[in-house]
Amino acid sequence: MRVLRDQGQVTALCREWRSRYGRRLAFVPTMGNLHAGHLALVRHARERGDRVVVSVFVNPLQFDRPDDLSRYPRTLEADARLLAEAGADALFCPEATEMYPEHEPVTARVVVSGLSRILEGESRPGHFDGVATVVAKLFNLVQPDLAVFGEKDYQQLLLIRGMVASLNFPVLIDAVPTVREDDGLALSSRNARLSPEARARAPELYRCLRDTVDACVLEPDQWPDIFPELLATADARLRDAGFRPDYLSIRRADDLGEPGPADRDLIVLGAAWLDGVRLIDNLRLLHGKFAGPA
Ligand code: PAF
After folding, report:
1. Assigned fold of 189-284
2. Cβ atoms of residues 32 and 76 within 8 Å
């Protein structure tokens, strides 16, 4: 596996693979501290591409709180080992000054209007502008045929799809289902920050979303009128379990708009603080039924 730190190096290598050898490039952008969820993205990229490029870059632009940025785990050596084992062909791991040179302040940002201001965007102002900007930069550097994102960050996935469609990036966006622990907790780099006691309570977020989905499925004729009551029940349960919910919401899956009575493809989303750690999760309803493993 090639390890590259300069923008010029990654662009030259990817151009050579694509133009000279006609390889199909699959790209997985990450912020490192890799776990089985990331490796599922890399496996998907391996199946769909001839060459797999992974970036590990903790993007300062997308952190709304300085303490979150400074505490974000940086484990590059272990990440590189895992990526080599998973069959990645190149790791791009630039310093922040390489992506945002100090002598050249960021003068252009990518803003995906609408979607970047609701739910996660409302709770974390500026977050999605930072995500869209760095992903646009990475797409321009790597110029992949295909890029892979996780459904765990569902709003991010829609945001990237929106950006790619609006700005005509010639890249396909593939989504990979959320990977969970046996008790249902969605894998996240932030889980490692939970105390053992909070870790034991953390799956309650998944269970609340799952029970909300099951309650929806039982009464499809009452959609969306029953949603506020179901969400209030989930909110109370989470508070009882020691969480501080940021939001719990049921939205249309294709654009995160407010659902009407005829909408059947929905997503139940939640974000909540536990033990100083912010957890997010979501579950899909497709054609009015739970779309996920039982
Ligand atoms: O999902 C992430 O890890 C990040 O938001 C991403 C897409 C790598 C951009 O920094």
Report:
1. Pantoate--beta-alanine Ligase; Chain: A,domain 2 (3.30.1300)
2. yes
Is the CATH code 3.90.1150.10 the one for domain 2-176? no
What does the alpha-carbon distance between residue 188 and residue 199 come to, in Å, rounded to a whole number? Answer: 12
Instruction: Indicate the length of the chain as a whole number.
Output: 294
Judge contact between 274 and 281, C-beta under 8 A.
no
**Ligand 1 center to 29 CA (angstroms):** 6
Q: Is the pTM value of this prediction over 0.85?
A: yes
Nearest to 136 by CA among 125, 124, 126, 147: 147
Q: Which atom of ligand 1 is nearest to 30's Cα?
A: 8
Q: Is 277 in the pocket of ligand 1 (CB under 6 A)?
A: no
Tens digit of each residue's pLDDT (9 = 90 or more) over 13-45: 999 999 988 899 999 999 999 999 999 999 999
Per-residue DSSP letter, 64: S
